[in-house]
Write a structure and sequence with these properties.
369 residues, alpha+beta, eight-stranded mixed sheet, three-stranded antiparallel sheet, 12 helices, 34% helix, 16% strand
Length: 369
């Protein structure tokens, strides 16, 4: 057998093993391949499969490596940690009373701003106890509330991103507007605006380490300046019909001098939370999957958890649940109850209620000795 004939036989054998790519070869009288047939050997359905495979980049898939997925640090739930039973509106530890009182004082200074969504109102004082969804039971009353103006407001497909820290009065007024508009936002903590990898990330993006800095992946818009961010959020995700609400009612946020002054007092009362990265925080905390926190800015029970997440520089997505929020019904659908704070940690798979225990959990998992 000469070399030329041997080559032809080898090619024919190879072709028979690749029916989805080529059905057969046509060999000329000179022993050379003159054409490739895609329809003479296999059924038509197989030929169609061949075309589909080629059109989907079958060969490219064989020779091109898939893009690598982002890897995340590994953390575990401590063996001695016990998930607490939820106890709504209960102070589980008397040692936490000073913290609750300070948070309540800060809430009063800010005139309870962000406790309610825009357009909040009471629907009924006597909700059907068998009715699905959230209502507040107080004695003989079952109070059901909602927002009359936020039902048709545009909702972002992806969470917005805010570089911030808890003690900043400028960041606080933006967070309050986020709660007022019932938005879900990913917070990237920058303690003291300088002390985290997110601060460096922000500097690489903008050449500045100034917070708050807002990114909206849904529109491609990004910006500094709390005034601009507040107006952007209201214009983009507020009620479409502006006549449905009185913009003057927003003055505790939009009146800058008042909001900055009172937010500063509130931060001082709370000890300027999040002003520095916790010394023993894990160095890779910023690389973790964002935790999910259900709650709202003004809650005295949510506040310590938010402060702990910021001081540990942990990215977290905040699902707003102020009074009148549609997310209250969603939390009931998910857990069978409404109680905040509620933390979901995708890094360990743990879900839990109760503010003190959540803070203990974060301390145990996301710090080093």
């Amino acid at each position: 057998m000469n070399g030329k004939m041997y080559s032809v036989i080898c090619l024919v054998v190879i072709a028979s093993q690749l029916p989805l790519i080529a059905d057969g070869f046509v060999v000329g009288g000179n022993g050379k391949i003159t054409s490739i047939s895609y329809s003479t050997i296999v059924p038509q359905s197989s030929a169609a499969s061949a075309g589909a495979a080629l059109s989907m980049g079958f060969l490219d898939d064989l020779f091109t490596s898939a893009p690598s997925k982002k890897s995340y640090p590994t953390v575990f739930v401590p063996d001695d940690f016990v998930v607490p039973d939820p106890q709504p509106l209960t102070l589980t530890r008397t040692s936490d009373l000073p913290s609750v009182l300070k948070s309540s004082a800060a809430l009063a200074v800010r005139l309870a701003t962000s406790c309610f969504v825009l357009g909040w109102g009471i629907d009924t004082f006597f909700a059907d106890e068998n009715e699905e969804g959230y209502y507040l039971a107080i004695g003989p009353f079952r109070i059901k509330d909602s927002s009359s103006v936020m039902k048709d407001a545009p909702r972002p497909a992806e969470p917005l991103i805010l570089y911030e820290y808890d003690g900043s009065p400028f960041c606080k007024r933006v967070r309050e507007m986020i709660n007022l508009l019932d938005l879900t936002v990913e917070y990237r903590p920058c303690p003291g605006a300088r002390q985290s990898k997110f601060s460096e990330e922000l500097f690489e993006l903008t050449g500045k380490k100034t917070v708050p800095y807002l990114i909206d992946p849904n529109t491609g818009v990004s910006m500094f300046e709390s005034d601009d961010q507040i107006q952007y959020l209201l214009d983009t995700y507020g009620p479409t019909d502006k006549s449905l609400y009185d913009s003057k009612a927003l003055w505790p946020i939009t009146f800058k001098a008042f909001s900055i002054y009172t937010s500063t007092i509130a931060a001082i009362v709370r000890g300027m939370p999040g002003s520095r990265r916790q010394v023993n925080a894990r160095p890779d905390n910023e690389d973790m999957r964002p935790l999910e926190l259900w709650g709202y800015e003004a809650s005295p029970f949510v506040k310590p958890v938010r402060e702990k997440l910021v001081s540990l520089a942990l990215p977290h997505t905040m699902v707003s649940c102020a009074r009148g929020s549609a997310n209250r019904d969603r939390l009931i659908e998910r857990t069978g109850r409404f109680q905040v704070p509620f933390l979901v940690d995708p890094n360990t798979g743990l879900e839990l209620f109760e503010s003190p225990e959540i803070c203990d959990y974060l301390e145990k998992v996301y710090t080093i000795e």
